[in-house]
Amino acid sequence: IKMNITDLNDDCLAKIFSYLDIYSLIDVRDVCERFQEIADMNLTHFKKFTVSFGKIQVCRLEEIMSFIGPNLRDLSISIGFCIRKELTLEVLQPISHYCTNLKKLTIHYLRMDASLTDYLKQIVENVSELDISYCILDSSVNDLFACCKKLETLIFLGSSAFYVNDLRNLENLKVLKVDQDCDPVIFQWQAEHNKNLKVEY
């Protein structure tokens, strides 16, 4: 008996589709209306996603984010200091447009400035955990923190140009994870401004 994949019921197809990568899952939507409905159901299950150069097709990021961005709760972005700023902005633009319901945001190896921060400010309002380890920061980080209305945990390892005054806008901050050799003035600031802040190494 010859069988076609379309002979399988929806549950079987949904299981098969669950093994597809994000690109194949989006592509299979074009096969037929039934495949589109099943693929869309699988796409809504994406709650966590990683954007990493070398592992992501930047040219398709807009398409990917249009499907999974609104449902994402945990997003990791690893850029790389050698990546051209124009390409970095090309990555952040669709993320800032679609990923507005994040609870956890991880950003590594980013050389941050005002233009990049403008995109990031659009997605941090509901973030409760922010990891900006191993980034090169400038004063624009203050503008980013000012938009973090619900931030409770800040992870700040191996990043340059960290100043304790950067924390002044983080009224709800409960946990700060820093390097062991961090500036001891953090503890003075903690005692004076946020005694409930837990500093971890």
* Amino-to-carboxy terminus distance: 63 Å
CATH third-tier fold name of the largest domain: Leucine-rich repeat, LRR (right-handed beta-alpha superhelix)
Summarize the helix and strand pattern as letters. HHHEHEHEHEHEEHE
Secondary-structure arrangement, i.e. CATH architecture of the largest domain? Alpha-Beta Horseshoe
Content of β-strand: 5-15%
Q: What overall form do the CA principal axes indicate?
A: elongated
> What is the domain total for the residues?
2
| Assembly category | single chain
Helix and strand topology:
Layout: H1 10-17, H2 22-27, H3 33-43, E1 48-52, H4 61-68, E2 74-78, H5 85-98, E3 104-108, H6 114-120, E4 129-131, H7 141-146, E5 153-156, E6 175-178, H8 185-193, E7 198-200
Parallel strand pairs: 1-2, 2-3, 3-4, 4-5, 5-6, 6-7
Helix pairs in contact: 1-3, 4-5, 5-6
Domain F-box: 2-49
Organism: Tabanus bromius
Protein name: F-box domain-containing protein
Would you mind describing this structure in some detail?
The chain is α/β, with parallel strands linked by helices and 201 residues long. The chain has two domains: 1-45; 47-199, Leucine-rich repeat, LRR (right-handed beta-alpha superhelix) (Alpha-Beta Horseshoe), CATH 3.80.10. It has helices at 10-17, 22-27, 33-43, 61-68, 85-98, 114-120, 141-146, 185-193; strands at 48-52, 74-78, 104-108, 129-131, 153-156, 175-178, 198-200. The chain has a seven-stranded parallel beta sheet with strand order 1-2-3-4-5-6-7, with no helix packed on it. α1 packs across α3 (33-43) and α5 packs parallel to α6 (114-120). It is elongated and about 75 Å long. It starts with 9 loop residues before the first helix and ends with a strand.
